[in-house]
C-alpha cells in the first residue's frame, strides 16, 4: 500500500526543510512546490492526498489559492501554515477551504499530528450554498437566487467562477487561478475568464439596476463584492 502523498507549497527554505524532514520521517511521500503556479501545475498531473500550504507565497495570496484548490479539488484536505496569528486570519483560512491551520513556528510532532488527523477525517464537505448581499448561490444547482424572489441560471463555467470568487471573500483572484478553478468546464481557459466575468456581470447587473458585484483589480485579476 502506497503511503499518502503530500504536496508541500512553501517557498521559505527553513520552514520547507522542517516540513519535508518531518513528513519523510513519518514515511509519507512528499513533493515540494516553491510557488502557487508550480503547485497548480503539479496538481494537474499528480494525485495528492493532502496539501500543506503557506499563506505567504511569492506569486499569489495563499487564501485565494486555497479557495481555488478547494473549488477544483474539493476532496483534497488543505492545512494552512503562516506566521499570522490573528483569529480573523484563522477564520479566513477555514472559510477559504482549509481543514486546519498551523501557526509558525511549530514543532514537527505537531505538524505530523495535524496531517494524520486531516487524513483520518476524510475528504472535506464543501458548502452547497453561499450567500453574498441579497444573493444565494446554489452550488450544485448552478443557480443564483435573489432575496426579491427571482432566479438566474448559470452555465457550469459561470457557476464555478463565481463560487471561487465568493470563497475568496472579497480578496482578488488572478486570471490563472480562475482558469484553474473552471478547468473542469468547457469554458475553462485563461482567455475565457474575461468572457465569463462579462457574462456574469450582465446577468447580475440586469437584475440589480447596474450594481457591479464583480470588479477588476488592475494587475491582479478580479474580486467580488460580498457585502450587503
TrEMBL record:
Keyword Zinc in the entry? The reply is: no
Please provide the record's keywords in A-Z order.
DNA-binding, Phosphoprotein, Transcription, Transcription regulation, Two-component regulatory system
GO cellular component terms attached to this protein's record: cytosol; protein-DNA complex
Residues covered by the OmpR/PhoB-type domain: 127-226
The UniProt record lists the keyword Magnesium: no
Q: Which domain of life is it from?
A: Bacteria
List the InterPro entries: CheY-like_superfamily (IPR011006), OmpR/PhoB-type_DNA-bd (IPR001867), Sig_transdc_resp-reg_C-effctor (IPR016032), Sig_transdc_resp-reg_receiver (IPR001789), WalR-like (IPR039420), WH-like_DNA-bd_sf (IPR036388)
What region holds the Response regulatory domain? 5-119
Q: Which GO terms describe its biological process?
A: regulation of DNA-templated transcription
The chain residues annotated with the modification 4-aspartylphosphate are: 54
Q: Which GO terms describe its molecular function?
A: phosphorelay response regulator activity; transcription cis-regulatory region binding
DNA-binding region located at which positions? 127-226
The protein's name is Two-component system response regulator OmpR
Amino acid at each position: 500500500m502506497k503511503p499518502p502523498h503530500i504536496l508541500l507549497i512553501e517557498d521559505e527554505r527553513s520552514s520547507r526543510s522542517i516540513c519535508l524532514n518531518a513528513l519523510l520521517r513519518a514515511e509519507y511521500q512528499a513533493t515540494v512546490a516553491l510557488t502557487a503556479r508550480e503547485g497548480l501545475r503539479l496538481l494537474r498531473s499528480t494525485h495528492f492526498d493532502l496539501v500543506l500550504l503557506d499563506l505567504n507565497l511569492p506569486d499569489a495570496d495563499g487564501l485565494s489559492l486555497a479557495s481555488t484548490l478547494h473549488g477544483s479539488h474539493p476532496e483534497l484536505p488543505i492545512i494552512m501554515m503562516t506566521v499570522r496569528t490573528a483569529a480573523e486570519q484563522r477564520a479566513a483560512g477555514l472559510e477559504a477551504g482549509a481543514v486546519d491551520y498551523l501557526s509558525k513556528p511549530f514543532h514537527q510532532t505537531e505538524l505530523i499530528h495535524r496531517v494524520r488527523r486531516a487524513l483520518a477525517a476524510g475528504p472535506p464537505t464543501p458548502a452547497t450554498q453561499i450567500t453574498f448581499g441579497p444573493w444565494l448561490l446554489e452550488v450544485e444547482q448552478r443557480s443564483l437566487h435573489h432575496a426579491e424572489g427571482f432566479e438566474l441560471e448559470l452555465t457550469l463555467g459561470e457557476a464555478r467562477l463565481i463560487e471561487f470568487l465568493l470563497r475568496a471573500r472579497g480578496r482578488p483572484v488572478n486570471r490563472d487561478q480562475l482558469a484553474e478553478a473552471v478547468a473542469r468546464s468547457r469554458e475553462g481557459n485563461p482567455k475565457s475568464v474575461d468572457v465569463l466575468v462579462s457574462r456574469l456581470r450582465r446577468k447580475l447587473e440586469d437584475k440589480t439596476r447596474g450594481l457591479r458585484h464583480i470588479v477588476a483589480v488592475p494587475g491582479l485579476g478580479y474580486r467580488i463584492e460580498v457585502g450587503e
